[in-house]
Design a protein that fits this description.
The structure is a single chain. Helix 10 (232-238) packs across helix 11. By secondary structure, this protein is α+β, with helices and mostly antiparallel strands. The radius of gyration is 19 Å and the shape is globular. It has 2 domains: 3-153, no CATH class; 161-265, Orthogonal Bundle (Arc Repressor Mutant, subunit A), CATH 1.10.10.60. The chain is built from 12 helices and 9 strands. Keywords: DNA-binding, Transcription, Transcription regulation.
Length: 266
């Protein structure tokens, strides 16, 4: 089981505070599971004697399964930010599916769970309690991840070639910073706009426009957290917005704060 960097990813809001409150470890999938899963992750925290901490992030366009005591569920892509309240001491294990990678398990449009969640038993037909105990009581991270992967390995659906197609498109949009609107994604991928929108609805759960917006806001939040932003107009232009009022509106609609309010909280 290969462990990757522990650095908090883009999208985690106020990461300098978060690094003092919790740790994140990520592990790469192995074998056939890697066709569907982007990585596994484990968050640990010890806040005994401290105030609870709401870990908040601008969600990536990925479905996640989170294994935690008495509440193992599969979470669709959040419409705005997503948050997990960290109390006392504990840990959770997550499966981050590739964009499109959860559709073969669900076998219906992933948009049907966007902004919501799906019960573990509802999807897999087994009670979550024994699975949670078996995973969370393992003596180390690697064995917890291995137990989750073994469970998935035993229930892998048939490969769907659209998983690779959609995952590749999402990564291309992420990597190419000139993609600032859907028409740019159409140019980059060569796919018909309507076809792309239908694919994203079925396999990703959110529209191409939403995916592009999330990457831009990830960049914005990261720059604000680093203290690199001096002028909102300059930042909005760099991110591909026609005017900074549109950028501020997008930021507030997702984060719940204006960029300036977010900077002040930093």
């Amino acid at each position: 089981m290969t462990k990757t960097a522990d650095k908090l990813p883009k999208g985690v809001l106020h990461p300098l505070t978060g690094e003092r409150k919790f740790s994140l470890a990520r592990y790469q999938p192995s074998g056939d599971t890697g066709y569907f899963v982007q990585h596994y992750w484990i968050v640990r925290w010890d806040l005994r004697g401290q105030e609870p901490y709401p870990q908040t992030l601008i969600a990536y366009p990925n479905v996640n399964m989170i294994v935690e005591p008495d509440n193992t569920r599969i979470y669709g892509v959040a419409r705005k930010t997503s948050a997990h309240l960290l109390l006392e001491q504990g840990w959770v294990v997550g499966v981050k599916f590739k964009p499109g990678g959860f559709y073969p398990f669900l076998q219906k449009p992933v948009s049907t769970i966007t902004g919501g969640s799906l019960g573990f038993e509802e999807l897999f037909g087994v009670r979550s309690g024994p699975f949670e105990d078996e995973v969370l009581q393992q003596p180390d991270d690697e064995r917890m991840v291995k137990r989750v992967e073994t469970f998935l390995d035993e229930r892998l659906p048939e490969r769907d070639p659209n998983v690779e197609l959609v995952s590749g498109m999402v990564k291309a949009i992420q990597d190419d910073r000139t993609v600032v609107k859907v028409e740019d994604a159409v140019r980059l991928t060569g796919m018909n706009k309507r076809t792309m929108q239908r694919l994203f609805d079925r396999y990703v759960g959110v529209s191409p426009k939403s995916v592009i917006q999330r990457w831009r806001l990830h960049d914005a939040a990261e720059r604000i957290d680093r203290g690199e932003v001096r002028d909102w107009l300059d930042l909005s232009v760099e991110l591909g917005y026609y005017d900074h009022s549109h950028f501020i509106r997008d930021f507030r609609s997702i984060v719940g704060l204006s960029p300036e309010e977010y900077r002040q909280k930093r």
